[in-house]
Amino acid sequence: MIQQIYPQVQHDYQFELNKDMHISAAHYIPHEDAGKCQKVHGHTYFVNVTIAGDELDDSGFLVNFASLKKLIHNRFDHSILNDHSDLFSEVDPNYFPTTEGVARAIWELVQSDLDTKDNKPKCVQVFVRETPTSYVVFRPKKKEGQE
Ligand SMILES: Nc1nc2c(c(=O)[nH]1)N=C([C@H](O)[C@H](O)COP(=O)(O)OP(=O)(O)OP(=O)(O)O)CN2
Ligand SMILES: [Zn+2]
C-alpha cells in the first residue's frame, strides 16, 4: 500500500485530486559530475500528481484517476528513462532525466492531456521521490494575469 506524506500546494480551486503511483525505471545522468549516477541504475520512483479545478466532467470526475495512471505509469514503468528522447536529452542538462527533469516531464505530459478537456483542470504539483532520502517537487509558474 502506498502511504506518503508530501507537500501541499496552495490554490483557490474548489476541487483537488491526488493520484499516487509507483514507477520502476532505470536511468543514468550523462554528466561526469553525476559520479556513480553516470552508470545505468534503477529506482522505484514514487510519483504523486495533484490536479485542481472548479468544473467536473460528464462523469462527475475532475479527471479520471485511471487515465492519469495510463498516461504516466504505462509510459514509464519498466523503461529506461534516457530512451524517451522526446522528453529527455543526452546533452542539455535542463532535459537530463534527473529527479527534477522527471518531475517536469511528468507535469508537461499531464498538463498537455488536461488541456484537451472541456473542464480545463490544472496540474498544480508533481512530486517525485527517487530514493528513500531524495525527492523533488515541481510546480508550474503562474502565467501573467492568472490567479
Ligand atoms: N539534485 C539531484 N541530485 C541528484 C540526483 C538528481 O536527480 N537530482 N540524482 C542522483 C542519482 O541519480 C541517485 O540515484 C540518487 O542519489 P542519492 O539521493 O544521493 O542516493 P543515495 O541512495 O546514494 O543517497 P543516501 O543519502 O545514501 O540515502 C544523485 N544526485
Ligand atoms: Zn538515479
From TrEMBL:
Keywords: Lyase, Metal-binding, Queuosine biosynthesis, Zinc. GO terms for biological process: tRNA queuosine(34) biosynthetic process. Binds 1 zinc ion per subunit. Zn(2+) binds at H27, H41, H43. Pathway: Purine metabolism; 7-cyano-7-deazaguanine biosynthesis. The keyword Zinc applies. Its cofactor is Zn(2+). Its EC number is 4.-.-.-. GO terms for molecular function: 6-carboxytetrahydropterin synthase activity; metal ion binding. The keyword Lipid biosynthesis does not apply. It is an enzyme of class 4 (lyase). It catalyses: 7,8-dihydroneopterin 3'-triphosphate + H2O = 6-carboxy-5,6,7,8-tetrahydropterin + triphosphate + acetaldehyde + 2 H(+). The active site is at C37, H78, E130. PANTHER family: 6-PYRUVOYL TETRAHYDROBIOPTERIN SYNTHASE, PYRUVOYL TETRAHYDROBIOPTERIN SYNTHASE. Belongs to the PTPS family. QueD subfamily. This is 6-carboxy-5,6,7,8-tetrahydropterin synthase. It comes from Metabacillus litoralis.
